Each structure stands twice: as structure tokens, then as C-alpha cells.
Amino acid sequence: MACMKLGSKTDAFQRKGQAWFCTTGLPSDIVVEVEEMTFHLHKFPLLSRSGVMEKLIAEASEGEDGCVIKLTDIPGGAKTFELVAKFCYGVKLELTAANVVYLRCAGEHLEMTEDYGEGNLISQTEVFLNQVVLRSWKDSLKALQTCDDVLSYAEELKITKRCIDSLAVKACTDPNLFGWPVVEHVGPLQSPGGSILWNGISTGARPKHSSSDWWYDDASSLSLPLYKRLISAMESQGVKQEIIAGSLTYYAKKYLPGLNRRQSSIESSNRLAPVGLGSSLSEEDQKLLLEEIDHLLPMQKGLVPTKFLFGLLKTALILRASPSCISDLEKRIGMQLDQATLEDLLMPNFSYSMETLYNVDCVLRILEYFLAMDQGTGGESPCSIDDEQLMGSPSLTPITMVAKLIDGYLAEVAPDVNLKLPKFQALAAAVPEYARPLDDGLYRAIDIYLKSHSWLGESDREQLCRLMDCQKLSLEACTHAAQNERLPLRIIVQVLFFEQLQLRTSIAGCFLVSDNLDGGSRQLRSGMVGTNEGGGWATAVRENQVLKVGMDSMRVRVSELEKECSNMRQEIEKLGRSKGSNTWGNVSKKFGFKLKSQMCSAQEGSVSNQNKINGKGLKDVKAKENHGKHKKNLSIDE
């Protein structure tokens, strides 16, 4: 730390208990009382340097104990007046960044101007401030920290503003271009060539370059009012928003203990990991700090980690922060919900009622903010995303990522017996239908909810299952749902119906691929591929065998589904006859099919015909196809 020595005389002051004595050989003729300390001094050195002391000495009356003066409001208290008294006597003292602000304010308070002697305290401290302190980052920071104790005087003399402006300018300047703060923080001396010196010898090693976050820890040592003013000054100087956000994040983690409870090992090992304070803030102070951090954070997506925002929100809920603060944090999270994880969403319910284990209402509001922002920024819609894109890439857009995240969250909160059906439905239905390429995740959450809420009636279960689209279930999910006793009968019938359609489509695709492979194998056998390409023939044969095995398993599954569907239809027709309704069309309408009732019968016929083809008729069909392809090959060769 830089310093400057004032005065030339040796120290002639001695302390005895709570009193200071000047040992110049002359008896003291004035006593100055500052706080609990008394100073036994002489009138002439004081009145020759201070206008205030001159007036007080002239007005003071001689008592039994001599002239006694009380100074009750001197900046810096007794410790600062000790330095002022030594300055008046010409005793050596050091000006430093730690005491210059106190001495400057005390000099102003005591009117120690040039009218009472050349090179008085005000001019000396001003020179040191401007030429030494404000040119150094470290000294400017230390001087600014001392302004808290004498804030009214420092504000009046514009010392606070000068220190803040000095820090702001240095923070937005590349530190690698100058000696600060690299030399101050790193420590080793450098040669003119830039290499590190050891005992005056160049080591050839280069000092590490400072990153843009080098000032975070220093700035976090300031009190909140001064830190706020420093951040505002940095913004006006053009410091980037992401750097400002990083500093605010660091400051919050340092003073809000709740943010560090779930800090990952990677963050804790980071060199910028904040160190906890020796004495933590009270809950009220933490709440005020959190609200100020929320106010200062830039409202821009991606500048602040989503995990940190969730930490702020959880802390705000615990500390009972203002509704506006909680709402702002929810909006910030909603802007970048696609970057969140399932662990982030699992926020405990801190309400006194403890209605549910997790705060589902908060997650619903965050989701609504995300959807509103997605629509406002022209997010993807059903018109701009076709089915092939959605089915082929489940994480194509942020909204599909959010849909997957919400489905996972629903599965986690579903076992809570206190979670009411309307709240579960509201969250599940809030996700747009086009955002889910598949409804497997939603089906899993519904199944868990039905298992944990077994007392739900048939109508409630049907209402819940209407949230998912049976046509968007994968083959595996359809297989599971068809055997799920917790699902209503209407849903099981729909699942069976659409599962048959999927299987038929898959079998048709397998036949097409198989025909293509058969044509390729004939080309291989006809000699179009040389002896060095025998590996292609073996691969084609293996793939053909695999496809045939898959087709056989699917045929078995189709037969089982046909039997189940036939049995179900017979049972439903019996029920229909008992009620006077003997038509399958009425039953199909009752179960909500969008296709005509004759579809099931037609499909049964097609499957039975297909089975015949797979037996005896399949050879004839293939023979005809091969004959046609053989003719085509001959025409090409000609």
C-alpha cells in the first residue's frame, strides 16, 4: 500500500491509559476530550493550524482543571484526532489509503486550510488522494471502504464518487495492458521484457493474464450501498452485461448462505468460489440483499446460470421476499427454462399449509412465462414443424426440451397423495400438444399418478387419460398400456386399436425392405458384384434373416391383438344387445374412435388374407413379382 510521510519531528506523544500527553517539556495548558480519550496538549500548535480550534479556545473559559474542550462529532473519532494533533505538532506520520479519508474529512471539519499555514492538512491529503490513491486500484478500493464510516463528510467532499469513478474506469480497461492490477495481485516483479524476476534474475516465465472477472472478489468486499453505486458506474462506463451479471452472482453467493448449500464440486473448486463471511447477515438483511440483487441483474436471457436463478428463487421463498421479487425471478427463469434440469424444478413447498410436497404452482407460473415468451418471439408452432421433424428429433426446439422436462417433473410429483387432480391436469395440459413428439413421458406420469391415487373414480381416470394422445404412443408404450389394469376400458380399447395400426404399418415397411433386399441378392447372384465384394452378400443375407425374424414376431403379436380385440368386441356387443344397442358402430362412437366401425372388421379380414399369403399364397405372389423383375432386368441388359 502506498504511503506518504508528513512532519519531521520525532514522536513526542505518550499514552497512559485513556489519556495522551505531549512530552515537549512544557506543561499542558489545554485538555481536548474526544469520545472516551483525553488529550493533554498546548493551545498554540492547535490554534495555529485549525480555525475551529482557534474559535473554541477563544470561547473556552478557564476552569479549575484549566481549558477543557469537548469534540463530539469529529470524523474518525479519537484515533483520527490523535493523527491530527501529531500533524499540528509537526510529528512524523504516514498518510495511507486506510487513513487519508478520515484525515481529509477531519481537516475539513476543523477548518485546517491554507489560511492557517502553508501545506496544511487539507491540501496534503488532497494531493495524496489525487496523485497516489486514485491511481491505484487497490488503494482506491481501500479508501472507498473507509468512506462508510464517514459517509456524510465523504459525500460532501465527493471522495466517494471519485473513488467509485476510479474503480469503474479501471474495471472496464484491459488489465493486461497496464501494471495494475496484475502486479498487485500476482506479486512477482517483472523484467522490462515482461518475464518474471527471481532475485533480480529473469526466469523466462510469463505472468498469467488476468481475465475479465479479476475484480469480482475485491468488489464483493464493499457494503451493499457502495457496491450498487460501483455497479451503476461500471454500466455507465460500458462494462459488458455478462461481466456485471457475473459480479452480481459472485456477490450474492458470498453473502447469501442458502445459495452455496447445493454448490457442485466443480463450482467449489473454482478459484472464484466465494468465501463465506465470518458473521452471516440476518434474515432481514439477506432479504433486502436478495431483492437488490434481483433489481440489479440484467433482464437478458443466458447472462445468469439457470441453476443460480433457481437458487435465488428458493432463497426468496424461504425468506418471504416481496411478491414482485419472486415474480421477477420466475420470469427470469421462464426466459431460459429450456436450460433447466429436473433437479432445479424440484423446489420444496415452503408454505405453512404444506398442501403439496413440491411447489407445483410456482413451476406452472414459470412454464406459462416461458410459453408466453416463446410465442412472443415467434417460437416454433405446429405449422412450422412437420411430423417427421418432431418424430425424428425429440430435442429439436427449446419447447420440445421443456415438454420433456415437464413430463419428467410430473412423474416426480405424481406420487404425492396431496397433489390434487386439477393441479396435475393444469400443469400437464399447459404444454402445447405439438411440443410433445411422443406422449410416452406423459403416459408414464399418468400411470404413476393413477397408481398413487387408486381411489380415483372411473370418470376422473378417463378425464386424466384424455391428456395423452394414444396415436403418439410408441410401440413399447402401447404394449404396456394394453396390459395396464389401472387405465379405463375406453383407453385400453383405443390403445389396442392404434397399436394394430402401428404394427400393420411396420409389417408393410418390413415387406418393402425385404423385397428390396431380395432384389439386391438376385443382383449379387447374377454376377454384378465381383468376388472381392463377397462381404456385401453375407451382410445382405444376415439383414434379410433379421427382418424375417422380426416379421414373424410381429405376426404373432398381431394375431394376439386380433384375438383380444375380437373377444372385447363380443363382450361389448353382448352389453350392447342387453341395452338394446346391437350395432358395433354405436359402440365405436361410445369409445371415441375417429375411424369408421367397419375398420376393425376390415383389418381382421386383411390380416387373415395376409396370413394366407404368408403361407401358400406368399410363394405365388413372390413368384409373380420375381418374374416381373426378371423381365425388367432383361430389358435393361438389352
UniProtKB/TrEMBL annotation:
Compositionally biased tracts (Basic and acidic residues): 617-626
Keyword Ligase: no
GO BP annotations listed: protein ubiquitination
Occurrences of domain NPH3 (ranges): 213-502
Keywords, in A-Z order: Coiled coil, Ubl conjugation pathway
Pfam families registered for this protein in UniProt: BTB, NPH3
Domain BTB: 28-97
InterPro entries recorded: BTB/POZ_dom, NPH3/RPT2-like, NPH3_dom, SKP1/BTB/POZ_sf
Compositionally biased region (Polar residues): 604-613
Domain of life: Eukaryota
Compositionally biased intervals (Basic residues): 627-638
Biochemical pathway: Protein modification; protein ubiquitination
Residue span of region Disordered: 604-638
Coiled coil regions, renumbered to chain: 551-578
Family: Belongs to the NPH3 family.
Name of the featured protein: Btbpoz domain-containing protein
Species whose genome carries this gene: Nicotiana attenuata (Coyote tobacco)
